[in-house]
Design goal:
The complex is a heterodimer. Chain A is of the alpha+beta class. Chain A contains 1 helix and 9 strands. In chain A, the strands form 2 sheets. Chain A has a 5-stranded mixed beta sheet with strand order 3-9-8-5-6, with no helix packed on it. Chain B has one domain. Chain B is mainly alpha-helical. Chain B has 20 helices and 4 strands. The chains are: A alpha+beta, B mainly alpha. Strand 8 of chain A pairs antiparallel with strand 1 of chain B, so a sheet runs across the interface.
């Protein structure tokens, strides 16, 4: 039987420990900035999105939404469609040319897609933190 | 990558799954910088300071106490696991045949969360578990036993190595990430029925060797299972060992490079395809979106295989050997990408696994979607303690960095084993460059919205 060789294990452990503490430190930094943002709890953001064929205006982007605040999303499409906000479990029927409003209140941190189904278009993502 | 457009949108974050509507927040910039820096540092330290003679022996490892080894080897433990697997399979087939074609049906969650992702996590923890509880393997063995013929019955010799597994894994990745309607009941019925039929046909012709090599999910479980801390040393006794020891037991074989390329490329595409720039490009392109996605997914597979082979070609030239050696060298080095693939799997699927894995319990309790609660888990509220953004970001960055570290160490061990002594150090540099690209690429995919 071979003897135990400590050097590779020691190197592994050392580098691991270093990277772990480094990354954990950084991640918790960002966590603390996240909580300072959440002082904006209860605020309402408003966003208007227009769909022409397969073109989404403004171009799909990520909307930041602190936990507890609300996004008022007004969608106008040039065709009949279905609107679906994943994770908020909200759906609405879009009538051609008629603005439709969804009120999305942020609860669970994460990233959620808002999309239509006919055709399948991503309108935006909501980053809840 | 397919071209300038997708490069411009080289950004992304979450898996766009048919199951689960929640994705992970982009990785914080600081975590990206620290993790990428750690990966670079590890790589350079490795070149200069690592061991010069092969060190990993198949006889290494910390022996498990006798009673624990006896439990692991006991027929009863295996039987219990097999019974559970059969019950879950039958329960799922019941929902597949009689359940509703709606979000209430548990089958998509069982297939894409418990089976695909859960199997990866279980294998990385315990080893190649699918081999023990694969219901199709059991069905095949059962039929042969009933017919009173040898379990080794085969019509033709098997000789394609892992190629069918690579093809199968590529197809399943396409099903998971590209196919439309991949959570609809009709689609899943076709998928599962054809998988059972194909597996049984393969096993009938080639015998149970089919499961050892050609079955995509056995390969998925076996390759990721090499990373498990639990394993058997060369005399068959149970030991605790490092993931490096497991990876180092894998020898180059036919189709291994393709299988690893599919594992790594598929997970990378999963993250990439969720980025908004890519989504905008696909939905505003005049080309059919499923065609664009399919071509890009195959492009990701090809990119991994190509970069790996290029690195190997440079390595054998640096070592002063003929270029045709790169074919066997790339196969020798492919196992060292398995830790990187494992790191990607953890980073991409952690939150899906811990959150949607709990949601699966809710759905399983009511397989017919008629409002019953047969398992008492219908009212389960998924705990979110393990998907807090800070924790998830830390797990993602750490698992990718650890995957990189283990990949570099495994490649180093292989290089000094197979290359001539004086060329071993310089010979592993090209592969290390490729690993740095994968790691920084993987982190960037997680960082960009």
């Amino acid at each position: 039987m071979r003897s135990f060789r400590p050097i590779p294990y020691a190197v592994t452990a050392l580098v691991l420990a270093g990277s772990l503490t480094g990354v954990a430190g950084c991640a918790s930094d960002s966590g603390s900035t996240g909580s300072s943002v959440s002082s904006a709890t209860g605020t309402v953001k408003r966003l208007e999105v227009t769909i022409t064929g397969t073109t989404v205006t403004p171009a799909p982007a990520q909307v930041e939404l602190p936990v507890g605040s609300t996004l008022e999303l007004v969608v106008t499409s040039d065709h009949d469609d279905e609107l679906h906000a994943h994770g908020f479990d909200q759906e609405a029927t879009l009538k051609a040319g008629v603005p439709t409003t969804l009120r999305l209140t942020a609860k669970e941190p994460g990233r959620y897609e808002v999309e239509t189904h006919e055709p399948a278009l991503t309108l935006l993502t909501v980053a809840v933190r | 990558m397919t071209g300038r457009e997708s490069l411009a949108g080289w950004s992304a974050a979450l898996p766009a799954h048919g199951v689960g509507s929640r994705g992970d927040l982009p990785l914080p910039f600081a975590a990206l910088v620290v993790a990428a820096g750690a990966a670079l540092l590890i790589s350079f330290v490795a070149i200069g300071f690592l061991w010069r003679e092969p060190r990993l022996r198949e006889s290494d490892g910390l022996l498990l106490p006798g009673w624990l080894a006896r439990v692991l080897d006991s027929r009863w433990l295996r039987l219990a696991a097999q019974v559970l697997a059969v019950v879950l399979t039958l329960w799922t087939l019941f929902a597949l045949v009689f359940g509703p074609d709606s979000a209430l049906n548990p089958v998509p969650h069982v297939v894409y969360v418990w089976f695909w992702v859960g199997l990866a996590f279980a294998s990385m923890l315990l080893g190649p578990v699918w081999r023990v509880i694969n219901p199709v393997r059991m069905l095949h063995a059962g039929v042969l036993r009933l017919a009173r013929v040898s379990p080794d019955l085969a019509v033709l010799p098997y000789r394609w190595g892992l190629w069918p597994a690579a093809l199968g894994l590529g197809t399943f990745t396409w099903v998971e990430l590209v196919a439309e309607e991949n959570t609809s009941l009709g689609f899943l019925r076709l998928l599962i029925a054809s998988f059972f039929a194909l597996s049984l046909l393969g096993a009938a012709v080639f015998g149970r060797t089919w499961f050892d090599y050609a079955d995509p999910f056995e390969a998925w479980s076996r390759l990721l299972g090499l990373l498990a801390p639990l394993g058997r040393r060369d005399d068959g006794r149970w030991v605790l060992r490092t993931p490096l020891h497991g990876v180092n037991t894998l020898r180059g074989q036919r189709g291994l490079v393709a299988t690893v390329a599919v594992m790594l490329g598929g997970t990378a595409y999963d993250g990439f395809s969720a980025n908004l720039g890519w989504a905008t490009f696909v939905q505003s392109s005049p080309l059919p979106s499923s065609l664009l996605r399919t071509v890009t997914l195959i492009g990701f597979f090809g990119l991994v295989a190509l970069t790996l082979w290029l690195a190997s070609a440079v390595s054998v030239r640096l070592a002063g050997e003929p270029l045709r050696q790169s074919v066997s060298f790339v196969s020798d080095m492919a196992p060292s990408l398995i830790p990187i693939a494992g790191g990607y799997v953890i980073a991409h699927y952690w939150s899906l696994w811990v959150y949607q894995g709990q949601v699966t319990w809710q759905l399983l309790s009511d397989p017919l979607g008629i409002g019953v609660d047969w398992l008492g888990t219908a009212g389960l509220v998924p705990a979110d303690a393990l998907i807090q953004p800070t924790l998830v970001a830390t797990i993602q960055a750490v698992s990718i960095v650890i995957g990189h570290l283990l990949g570099v160490l495994a490649a180093h061990e292989r290089a000094i084993t197979v290359l001539p002594h004086r060329a071993a150090i310089i010979g592993q540099v090209p592969l290390m460059v490729v690993m740095i690209l994968y790691t920084v690429g993987g982190l960037t995919i997680l960082f960009t919205p």
